[in-house]
Amino acid sequence: MLGIIRKDAPLFALYSVPLFGLLLTYQVGEGVLDPFKVLGTGFFIILVTWGGISTSEQREVRSDGYAFLRTLPVTDRQIVAAKFALVFATAFACLAAAQVLLYVLDVRGMHKPLASLYLFCCAVAALLLGGLGYVAIYAWGFPRVLKLAWLSCAAVGGSWILFDVLFIRNRRLDFRNIAWLSQGRSWVLSLTVVSAGLAAFYGLMRLAVRIKARRED
Amino acid sequence: MEAVLEVRDLSKQYPEFTLDAVSLSVPKGCIKGLIGPNGAGKTTSIKIIMNMIRADAGEVEVFGLRYPGAEKQIKSRIGYVGEEQHFYLNKTVGWTGRFVAQYYDRWDENRFDKLLMDFRISRSKKVRELSKGMKVKLAFALALAHDPDLLILDEPTSGLDPVIRRELLDLLKAVCQQEGKSLLISSHITDDLMRIADYVTFMHEGRIILESEKDELLANWKRIHFRTGALPQDILAGLSHAEHHMFGSSGITRNYQDLKDRLADAIAREDVKVENVNLDDILIAFVKER
């Protein structure tokens, strides 16, 4: 398992380190966070995690790497666990950096607890998308999933515009400042989101192992 | 003799192919050849033995251990070379060796280096720069460097030139004889198996049709050429693949050792001539029969 992690870690770092580093440097340079920047930071957590998955899977496809791994004394469970561990490590590292940023910098136009919760949600989304991504890759193969990912991005982008038009502009829904979050125990919600996310992530990993073994039959 | 590999009643159903109750074993320290035409089920059987695909039914026992629980223990004692070589193409030979080494307790870096040197493969070369023959040699080096107790080779020499083929077969034979390793090798190039196998198993259309010691098989299977009327009727009836030509007739017997004494006089009179057959002839005889 460690061998696979060591093999793929540079491919995950290839996206996350320069992109996230650049983003953080820019934010620190600006000195103040606003909702747009918080939103961007959260989106970057998802982006760099998926970037790592996509690069490493592209390499596996190009070299038929899974066929090579199956000849070694390593089980399907260990292969999948190594892949999921890297997704977790990437999302966790990005989330930690973003939370430090939030702690250090001022946030204007948005309550800090909400910003923090939003970043937790993004990290959980990165885990779930990564997990779902691997399930889909083992079920349908990477090239098809890549196409599907592009379509999903377009769909999410489209629905965000729709959401903005329908709810935020017309009904003046201010999702950035939900009063109870700034007053209450936002950490309870964050903890719930993270726990549920991790449980779902573990479930997806087990599903990915089953699907991978079945597909190779 | 103690078996390092026991396969019992393996079955696997595909839409256009069925592996049907395959049973075989590899005795310790012996070389077993798996022979069959393309699509006979050799690769499917080997992939099931390597737990790369799962059987619908049947059992695989390697070193007395079973999948899936003992997958790591089993595979760490097997050296595998497949029909196609899969490596990370953009990595170097040295990196590949280091990567594979992590998974084996008995990895011997000196032996890996020596094999690379013997095969004239540079550690710094990228895998994608290697020719097909070189990739096969790299696969052999990786399979042998961790001192496996059992080697499983699936058509390892197909597509290689005769020089490389001979080189690799000699190496395998030496490893098995000197180090007491066991070997299961599948091939449709029967010449390879003639050179090295102790036992042979014939497969056709997903079934095992014959399993025997190679020398015993070759001692019993003979082509008999005879003048018309020179053979007793019962021997004639037992011959398969009869051919008639202007000099007489010929056919294949499967029990020459039993007929030897009865044919001695006819052989002395030169009414009968006995010719050795090779594994190809036996395979073709079986395929034609079915």
Brief sketch in words of this structure:
With 217 residues, chain A is an all-alpha fold. Chain A has 8 helices and 2 strands, in the order αβαααβαααα. Helices cover 86% and strands 2% of the residues of chain A.
Can you walk me through this structure?
The complex is a heterodimer of chains A (217) and B (290). Chain A has 217 residues and is mainly α. Chain A has one domain. Chain A is 86% helix and 2% strand. Chain A is built from eight helices and two strands, in the order H-E-H-H-H-E-H-H-H-H. Chain A has a two-stranded parallel ribbon. In chain A, helix 4 runs antiparallel to helix 8 and helix 5 runs parallel beside helix 8. The longest helix of chain A is centred in the last third of the chain and has 31 residues. Chain B has 290 residues and is an alpha/beta fold. Chain B has two domains: 210 residues, 3-Layer(aba) Sandwich (Rossmann fold); 69 residues. Chain B is built from eleven helices and 14 strands. A six-stranded mixed β-sheet of chain B has the order 6-7-8-3-9-10, sandwiched between helices. A four-stranded antiparallel β-sheet of chain B has the order 2-1-4-5. In chain B, a hairpin with a 2-residue loop joins strand 4 and strand 5. The mean pLDDT of chain B is 89. The interface between A and B is medium-sized, with 19 and 24 residues.
